[in-house]
Amino acid sequence: xxxxxxxxxxxxxxxxxxxxxxxxxxxxxxxxxxxxxxxxxxxxxxxxxxxxxxxxxxxxxxxxxxxxxxxxxxxxxxxxxxxxxxxxxxxxxxxxxxxxxxxxxxxxxxxxxxxxxxxxxxxxxxxxxxxxxxxxxxxxxxxxxxxxxxxxxxxxxxxxxxxxxxxxxxxxxxxxxxxxxxxxxxxxxxxxxxxxxxxxxxxxxxxxxxxxxxxxxxxxxxxxxxxxxxxxxxxxxxxxxxxxxxxxxxxxxx
Length: 254
Prior knowledge:
With 254 residues, the protein is an alpha+beta fold.
């Protein structure tokens, strides 16, 4: 049986078709420019866009390599979240970082944490008790305040608040930004994603805060199996994204 090339388009085809595992060993390696790569039988892995799968820390490279090493007879992309996030970060076209930042800034304009219930009183109290401390933290962290809106009718956020979010996001490298983008989508909140990035919340705490409305509804009416599976899947995505964020940081950067 001919050997498989583990680079470029061939790698993409193998992953999407779920072909059989074609390598024996998976391990981290290093590049001449100080990055870290993943080697399958000594050959570097490439992303779907044929870029070298090179990441900023040895810890992340080892974790990605572990995903490859853990594959059985077939390569199952769903079991490789760190590989997926690394590919996403590396394959963004030049200049797309600005688009991702702009998307997140727009998302912050309707941030979930800023839309509080008008009733019932016990749900309003939950929003105040659990969300207000994060909004207060964000005011200090960003040096700008977000407005609280009671009800579901969209209202604009202060320009200064959105500019502050933009500045924070623009300071991130592509790996960090990719993780924050993923977290913001899972939480429906850029502010919760920034709180995880800054270490104000751990991923489980942030997920719980993002689910206050859903948890309240479950308490009132119960939860069906499909909804429970969706929540579990989102929670797992949150943990994967937070782990990618943690591993992609250089030592000493938190």
